[in-house]
Amino acid sequence: MDLETYLRERKERIEATLAEHARDWEERVPEALAKAMAYSLLAGGKRLRPILCLAAFEGCEGARVAEAVALDFAVALELIHTYSLVHDDLPAMDDDDLRRGRPTCHKVFGEATAILAGDALLTEAFGILAGGDEPVRAKLVGLLARAAGAEGMVGGQQLDLDMTGRLAAAEPLPSLDEIGEIHRRKTGALLAVASEAGALAAGASDATVKALRAYGESLGLAFQIADDVLDVVGDAAAMGKSGRGDEAKGKPTYPALVGIDRARALAREARDRALSAIGELGEAAAPLRLLASYAIDRAS
């Protein structure tokens, strides 16, 4: 199976499951809130995080009986990723007007409802993941909480805010290690836990789970460096963004620090580390290998 077909088929499955949850909200969530949640969640996107979780599960040849756990984790990941985008777009954060090719949640529903929609998506994610009786779910809840919380994605956002403006101010530029730490937390944490959780749901050995986490960490760095490059050289319309890239906002980026060519080289190095981490996996892991190259070769 080629990567395009693989991505399309897994994305269709994920989209259908997300739509089911959105329909459920219509029955039990206040109307304005349910609409804001669904507007943000069903706006499209690559769905890379949930696809990565499913690819890791399949790459470890998980039994079909355990597939529901992997799918629930995949869906929970996408809800958390979406909540983070809703909050990142707010005027107090990145102040963006466009996301995935259309107005951001707060532009349509107002800032207060956008904040509540993000809060609701976050908590719904944990409700979905905790909804079965498989013992592994408790461990996955803990892993997801750490990846999404203060030591992971949220902590990365704080570091990002702390460093914003250095490019425009007379302060020393951040180091590569500092930018790498932001990316490891803000982007890499969810990607690392996606692949790790897929392996855990599949019942993989401790060594394989560790390898899949290392793969996700390197993939996350490669993906974010590629995003930094695309912010400079990419087509804003194709990317569904407002065109106000991170560098223009005074945010620390790899191209701003080392230039486009060196940033691309660093992305390739991260991709190679990701591939090396899963070198012992068999043919079932072929989509994971293709995803590593997709992370840096994509146009949006």
TrEMBL record:
One cellular-component annotation, GO: cytoplasm
UniProt cross-references to CDD domains, sorted A to Z: Trans_IPPS_HT
Highest taxon listed in the record's lineage: Bacteria
InterPro entries reported in the protein's UniProt record: Isoprenoid_synthase_dom_sf (IPR008949), Polyprenyl_synt (IPR000092), Polyprenyl_synt_CS (IPR033749), Prenyl_diphosphate_synthase (IPR053378)
A GO term for molecular function: prenyltransferase activity
GO biological process: terpenoid biosynthetic process
Keywords in alphabetical order: Isoprene biosynthesis, Magnesium, Metal-binding, Transferase
Family: Belongs to the FPP/GGPP synthase family.
PANTHER family reported in the protein's UniProt record: FARNESYL DIPHOSPHATE SYNTHASE
Protein name: Octaprenyl diphosphate synthase
